[in-house]
C-alpha cells in the first residue's frame, strides 16, 4: 500500500511539472517573437538613418565643390568688375540670337551641347560644320554657362589641347589655359600622343583624344 502511495505521488508530481512546462512554452515563444520583431525594426531604422546620412553627405559635398569652384574664379574680382560683367551679360544677351533652337543663348554667346559621344577631332570638325568651334573658356559668362547647363557627373570635350612634349595647355586660338578659372584634375603620365581637354561641372581634365565624349560648340 505504501508503495502505491509513493507511486501515485510521483506520477501526480510529474504530471504537474509537464503541465507547467506546456503552459510556459507559449509564453517564452511569445517573448522571443517580440524580441525578434523589435530587433528587425531597430535594424530597419538604422538602415534608413544611414541612407539619409549618405544622401545628405553627397549633397553637401556637391554644394561645397560648386561653391569652391565659383569662389576660386571670383576671388580678386571687385564689385565694379562684377557689375560690368552683369551689365555686359544682360545687354549682349538681348542683342544676339542663335542659329536654331538647338543652341543656347547665354551672355551674348551661343552654345551647342552634344548628346552623343565622339573623339576630340571629330567633335572639333562637327563644330566647324556648324560654323562654330569647340568651346573656349574665357570668362565668367562661359563659367556660368557650365554651372547652369552641364550634368554634374559628365565630361565634355572643349577646345583645349596639350601637344606631345609640351607642358602648357593651349586653346584652339593658341592662347594658354588660365588655371584661375577653375581647378585642373591631376595629370596622367605623359605619353607621346596629344592630350585633349575635358570640362566638367567643376574642373578641367585631360584625356586621350581618341576617347569618346560629348562636346560643346561655341559661336
Automatic annotation (TrEMBL):
One of its GO terms (cellular component) is plasma membrane. It is a single-pass membrane protein. The keyword Cytoplasm does not apply. The chain crosses the membrane at residues 31-55. It is found in: Membrane. One of its GO terms (molecular function) is carbohydrate binding. This is Killer cell lectin-like receptor subfamily B member 1B allele A. Its main location: membrane. Residues 106-218 form the C-type lectin domain. Keywords: Lectin, Membrane, Transmembrane, Transmembrane helix. InterPro entries: C-type_lectin-like (IPR001304), C-type_lectin-like/link_sf (IPR016186), C-type_Lectin_Receptor_IMM (IPR051379), CTDL_fold (IPR016187), NKR-like_CTLD (IPR033992).
Amino acid at each position: 500500500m505504501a508503495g502505491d502511495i509513493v507511486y501515485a505521488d510521483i506520477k501526480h508530481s510529474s504530471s504537474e511539472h509537464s503541465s507547467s512546462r506546456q503552459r510556459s512554452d507559449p509564453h517564452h515563444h511569445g517573448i522571443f517573437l517580440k524580441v525578434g520583431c523589435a530587433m528587425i525594426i531597430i535594424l530597419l531604422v538604422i538602415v534608413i538613418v544611414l541612407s539619409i546620412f549618405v544622401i545628405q553627405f553627397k549633397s553637401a559635398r556637391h554644394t561645397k565643390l560648386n561653391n569652391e569652384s565659383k569662389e576660386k574664379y571670383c576671388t580678386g574680382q571687385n564689385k565694379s568688375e562684377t557689375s560690368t560683367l552683369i551689365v555686359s551679360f544682360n545687354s549682349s544677351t538681348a542683342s544676339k540670337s542663335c542659329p536654331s533652337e538647338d543652341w543656347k543663348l547665354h551672355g551674348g554667346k551661343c552654345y551647342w551641347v552634344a548628346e552623343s559621344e565622339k573623339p576630340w577631332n571629330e567633335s572639333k570638325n562637327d563644330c566647324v560644320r556648324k560654323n562654330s568651334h569647340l568651346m573656349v573658356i574665357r570668362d565668367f559668362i562661359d563659367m556660368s554657362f557650365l554651372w547652369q547647363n552641364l550634368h554634374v557627373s559628365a565630361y565634355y570635350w572643349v577646345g583645349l589641347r596639350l601637344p606631345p612634349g609640351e607642358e602648357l595647355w593651349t586653346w584652339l586660338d593658341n592662347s594658354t589655359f588660365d588655371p584661375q578659372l577653375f581647378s585642373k584634375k591631376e595629370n596622367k603620365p605623359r605619353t607621346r600622343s596629344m592630350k585633349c581637354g575635358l570640362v566638367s561641372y567643376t574642373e578641367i581634365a585631360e584625356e586621350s583624344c581618341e576617347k569618346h565624349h560629348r562636346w560643346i560648340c561655341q559661336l
